[in-house]
């Protein structure tokens, strides 16, 4: 039995292909691991605030020295970190918007990036502390970005692989629903994406 965390970052609501693809991934995980628990978090709906100088400063104050106000200011960050650490499998819905991720997903990343908690440094360099997780990315795009001329403009998959890897989440697989607006491809693009899902 696994605990699954499904993050959604689409502004398209029920018509979102990244959300639909994420659900398909979750279903296949549940088929492989019957009885698994699922926690869903819509990052757009909860409107995660961007980091402020005050909150960033508070990240570096030892917990026993925080004031009541400072503790409250990082409560959301603390909760998001606990939620992440409790998950065995993370499914991240990541539509490509203007070549990159939506700001709600970036805000989540900023809040779960905590020195001494989710990453640290050793004499040989950075050390990710969020280990033992499997990550699946449900990526969607109107064009084709996995190959061809569009590949150079994909700042979703490479970024997530690099940064989540920095935090210790190196076991990451990307499933793509791409070409969703391209004539000759769009009619079967989503079905092809679902068929590509393999849970390891």
Short descriptors:
about 200 residues; alpha/beta; globular; five-stranded parallel beta sheet; Rossmann fold; two-stranded antiparallel sheet; 8 helices; single chain
How many individual domains?
1
Structural class: alpha/beta
Low-confidence segments? none
Which percent bin holds the helix content?
Answer: 25-40%
Q: Give the strand content.
A: 15-25%
CATH architecture: 3-Layer(aba) Sandwich
Strand order of the largest sheet: 2-1-3-6-7
Q: Count the beta strands.
A: 7
Order of helices and strands: EHEHHHHEHEEEHEH
| Overall 3D form | globular
Largest sheet: 5 strands, parallel
Q: Provide mean pLDDT, rounded.
A: 96
Q: State the separation between the terminal residues, measured CA to CA.
A: 14 Å
Number of helices: 8
Any idea what the CATH superfamily is called? Flavodoxin domain
């Amino acid at each position: 039995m696994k605990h699954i965390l499904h993050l959604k970052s689409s502004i398209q609501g029920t018509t979102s292909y990244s959300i639909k693809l994420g659900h398909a991934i979750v279903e296949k995980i549940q088929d492989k691991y019957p009885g698994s628990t699922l926690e869903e978090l819509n990052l757009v709906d909860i409107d995660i605030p961007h980091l402020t100088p005050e909150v960033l400063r508070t990240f570096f104050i030892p917990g026993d020295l925080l004031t009541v106000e400072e503790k409250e200011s990082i409560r959301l960050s603390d909760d998001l970190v606990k939620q992440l650490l409790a998950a065995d499998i993370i499914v991240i819905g990541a539509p490509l918007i203007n070549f990159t991720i939506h700001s709600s997903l970036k805000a989540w990343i900023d809040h779960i990036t905590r020195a001494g908690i989710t990453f640290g440094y050793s004499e040989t360099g950075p050390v990710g502390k969020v280990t033992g997780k499997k990550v699946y990315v449900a990526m969607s795009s109107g064009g084709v970005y996995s190959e061809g001329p569009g590949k150079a403009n994909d700042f979703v998959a490479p970024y997530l692989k690099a940064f989540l890897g920095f935090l210790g989440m190196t076991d990451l697989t990307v499933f793509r629903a791409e070409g969703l607006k391209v004539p000759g491809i769009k009619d079967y693009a989503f079905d092809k994406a679902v068929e590509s899902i393999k849970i390891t």
